[in-house]
From TrEMBL:
Pfam families given in the database record: Med1
Residue ranges annotated for the Mediator complex subunit Med1 domain, each copy included: 91-196
Entry superkingdom: Eukaryota
Name of the protein in question: Mediator of RNA polymerase II transcription subunit 1
GO MF annotation, one: nuclear vitamin D receptor binding
InterPro entries registered for this protein in UniProt: Mediator_complex_subunit_1 (IPR051999), Mediator_Med1 (IPR019680)
Keyword Transcription regulation: yes
Job of this protein: Component of the Mediator complex, a coactivator involved in the regulated transcription of nearly all RNA polymerase II-dependent genes. Mediator functions as a bridge to convey information from gene-specific regulatory proteins to the basal RNA polymerase II transcription machinery. Mediator is recruited to promoters by direct interactions with regulatory proteins and serves as a scaffold for the assembly of a functional preinitiation complex with RNA polymerase II and the general transcription factors.
GO BP term, pick one: cellular response to thyroid hormone stimulus
Keywords, alphabetical: Activator, Nucleus, Transcription, Transcription regulation
Gene Ontology CC terms: mediator complex
Subcellular location, record wording: Nucleus
Family: Belongs to the Mediator complex subunit 1 family.
Length: 204
């Protein structure tokens, strides 16, 4: 009996991430790479006799997962004295992105923003919401997007120079090979950090 309870307890701990700050709690549960719920709430919102997970499931079951991702991002943007909280939330957001299918413009933008954050790059969306920029001190990428979220083109440029289309990066995004795309960005950053290097070569 005790052994079975311990196993269930470990499974629960693996699949549920909880973080507390400023009197609020963030709970994100992922089962089989599928996110089930995410929320920020005040302890006063919850009846002490009602299980926490049941409360979250009933309150947030109908919310789309784009809202969930935005919710976690807002939590990460808040100032916190404990850096471990930020790492926990970032890990949760990465797992959400890994489980989420990219099927719209904003979900693709969120995916690109997360990749940029992982690689230490900046990111922003153009006013027309048709281009997502991934930026560093020495170079930047333009990811041209269609309203459906599909990628029209990917361009790379030095700051101050005209951007040039990059077919290998375009193919990676179109085939949804996001991890490979992220690794290519890491290689690109390393190449630009070599003094005197201004030409980019990709081996695919």
């Amino acid at each position: 009996m005790a052994k079975g309870w311990g196993r269930r307890r470990r499974e629960r701990d693996v699949n549920t991430h909880t973080s507390a700050y400023s009197g609020n709690v963030v709970v994100i549960k992922i089962v089989d790479r599928t996110p089930r719920m995410a929320s920020v709430f005040r302890p006063s919102d919850v009846d002490s006799n009602e299980p926490l997970v049941s409360h979250l499931r009933s309150k947030y079951a109908e919310k789309p997962w784009n809202e969930t991702i935005q919710l976690v991002r807002r939590c990460m943007d808040k100032s916190r004295s404990d850096p471990r909280s930020s790492q926990l939330l970032l890990s949760c957001l990465e797992r959400l992105h890994g489980a989420l299918n990219v099927s719209s413009l904003m979900s693709m933008v969120s995916k690109l923003e997360m990749i940029a954050k992982q690689r230490g790059l900046g990111s922003h969306l153009s006013p027309t919401e048709t281009t997502c920029y991934l930026t560093s001190d020495l170079f930047y990428l333009e990811v041209l997007l269609l309203p459906s979220g599909d990628v029209e083109d990917v361009k790379v440029a030095h700051h101050g120079e005209a951007p040039v289309s990059c077919e290998p990066l375009l193919k990676l995004l179109r085939s949804k090979r996001y991890e490979d795309f992220s690794l290519k960005l890491d290689c690109l950053s390393s190449l630009y950090n070599i003094p005197g290097t201004s030409t980019v070569f990709f081996i695919v």
